[in-house]
Amino acid sequence: MPSEDLVYLPLSELAKRIESKKLSPVELTRRFLDRSEKLGPRFNAYARLTPDLALQQAEVAEKEIQHGHYRGPLHGIPYAAKDLLSVKGLPTTWGAKPYANQVFDYDATVISHLNRVGAVLIGKAAMIELAGGMGYRFASASLQGPTRNPWNTDRWTCGSSSGSAAIVAAGLAAFAIGTETWGSIICPSAYCGVSGLRPTYGRVSRFGTMALAPSMDKIGPLARSAEDCARVFAAIAGHDPKDRSTLPIDKAAFTYSPSTELKSRALNVGWLTNAWTSMEPGVAKAVHTSENVIRKYSPHMKEATLPVGPWEDAANIIVAVECAASFRPLLRSGRVSELTDPLGRIAGYLNEQFSAADYLQALKVREILQKKIDNLFDSFDVLIAAAQPIAATRLELNLETDAVFPDPLGAIGNLCGLPAVAVPCGFTESNLPVGLQFLARAGGDLAVIQGARTYQQHTEWHRKHPKVA
Amino acid sequence: MSISRRDFARRTVIASAAASLVPANIFITADAAPLFQAQQPPDLAKLSPTSQAELESRMQTILGQYGGRLSEEQKADLRRLCLAAESSLGRLRAYAVENADGISLYFKPVIDREKKLSIVPDLSPHSPNNP
Q1: N or C, which end of chain B is more exposed by having fewer CB within 10 Å?
Q2: Is A242 a catalytic residue?
């Protein structure tokens, strides 16, 4: 099989070949490493490759499988982790110069989980500095420089899980781990034409992961399909005593097999009519086509509307205040001036000034919103809308002034900790990917996976990949 | 209501909510950047006197704490961010909440007290800790 085809195989197929010993984890790892060394710099996709660790893990996996100890669908599968997940003994830079030499002596819980199932870490993915916590104006706001979109290297990947999305899109690893506080999995997935899962808040432990806005930070996979995301999610979800925000054992754990979906009833699907005020024509066309596809297999789909309110303002102040607290030493020391982006160097000074009364007002608004959204999901299992109203922007664009649109869907989804999956649903006239987003109530991770997987069973967009070799 | 959007990150600067006056029909079809018109800065004159005073106070606090580190350009930038923040805060504060409304601030008591008990000094009759 040509190298290009192998690196774009879904997890289920890679796992089947590895389990049956038709594919060597060491060979697969070497192939991804070679490709990453060759193509990674073209996209600024990696903070660093970890070839020694990867080959060591792959050799262990290979020996275990040869001796009949197969750990499951991620055993021997190479992946990348956003460079805000600590890996014992390796630099974890948070994408920012002030932390360029930071090394932790422990693994993040997500890394430990992936170690336990035998996955192979081939590198740390590039990211926007501090996951964008201090704000940024340009795609270049990263220690690694701007991550370039594999579909068009003059375009951005979106952030802050920029490297994670580029790595998956370019076939540099089988999957990648990203994080989202507000948009950082969904947007890069949409821009790069990959599938991304933002889990329910509290299902994946953040222990060992950079804190930005602790009441909104979430960790999730980016991969080739919703099903692939589900398999990774099953490995990383679960209660963790080290992260007390994780849900109880019975609510946090996730098990997945396609047969789980078969036992589920058909989903009540809603099409959101007010998620975006307007869409770029090429995006609107692809999304409209998708709507028609979904109506064919889900004829009872109804229109749905998001409640109206100051959700973005509430989310803004929560993120601003929590981020200022998370990075107070950076602000107070003045080292924030070492950040790359001009906005990132100053915005924290403002974010530090908001009053506790305003923060608590935002939390009250959040509670009201949670009830409204829970009521909405009494009528729907899954809500669907465009993942983003535009396609990948040019690298040099000023994001603060020249890419402006309302995002109540992102604000609501992240304020309420709702699960969402973004999947590719077409291309613009410029051959840039367009994404579709599936949203469910808190805890409804299986519903968004099932909704997205059903869509992918009726379409082929997730099998498209850029010609990068 | 509308905000700057690319990733939540810019929104962490509450000032990015300044985009609230951007019209919905700003999308253009050409493939040339920018995809959107440049946003208009918020209008100071539209703020109430109270909000204007709050803006000035906030700006002075920042300058008092950090002014020595900031260039004139950065100070001007921060003033613009403060202005935008006032617009966003105005919308947030105007949303009606009741005194009895719940607050999504969850305090989770430590329930594994058993572990803590193990480090409580042993005060049994035979313990040297027992005076």
Answers
A1: C
A2: no
Task: Evaluate if residue B34 carries a pLDDT over 80.
Answer: no
CA–CA gap between residue B6 and residue A460 (Å, rounded):
27
CA atoms of B2 and B37, how far apart (whole Å): 14
A263 is annotated as an active-site residue = no
Structure confidence by residue, pLDDT tens digits, A66-85:
999 999 999 999 999 999 99
CB A423 within 8 A of CB A455: yes
Distance from CA of A236 to the nearest CA of B (A): 23
For residue range B36-70, what is the model confidence (pLDDT) as tens digits?
A: 444 455 677 788 999 999 999 999 999 999 999 99
Reported as a single tens digit per residue, the pLDDT across A272-310 is 999 999 999 999 999 999 999 999 999 999 999 999 999
Residue A402 C-alpha, separation from nearest chain B C-alpha, in angstroms: 5
Note the helical H segments in A159-310.
Answer: 162-169, 186-192, 226-236, 249-252, 258-263, 281-297
pLDDT at B43: 73
A184 catalytic residue (yes or no): yes
Residue of A152, A185, A346 best to disrupt the B interface, most CBs of B under 10 A: A346
Local structure of residue A7 (DSSP, 8 states): H
CB contact (8 A) between residue B16 and residue A400: yes
pLDDT of B22 > 70? The answer is: no
Inter-chain touch B34–A402, beta carbons under 8 Å: yes
- How far is B111 from B116, CA to CA, in rounded Å? 10
Is residue A76 within 8 Å of residue A58, measured between CB atoms? Answer: yes
pTM of the complete model: 0.91
SS3 A170: coil
Distance CA A3, CA A211 (A): 38
Please, how many CA atoms are within 13 Å of residue A12, restricted to the half-sphere of its CB?
11
Taking CA–CA distances from A334, the nearest residue in chain B reads B69
Work out how many CB contacts closer than 8 A connect A with B. 234
Contact B78 A350 (CB under 8 A): yes
Contacts of A137 in chain B (CB under 8 A): 10
- Tens digits of residue pLDDT in A148-199: 999 999 999 999 999 999 999 999 999 999 999 999 999 999 999 999 999 9
Q: Looking at residue A4, what is its pLDDT?
A: 63
Options A142, A160, A162, A205, the catalytic residue: A160
pLDDT, tens digit, 9 for 90 and up, residues A90-114: 999 999 999 999 999 999 999 999 9
- Mutation target for A interface from B10, B31, B97, B103: give the one with most A CBs within 10 A: B10
Strands (E), A351-430: 382-386, 420-427
Beta carbons of A246 and A203 less than 8 angstroms apart: yes
pLDDT at B37: 41
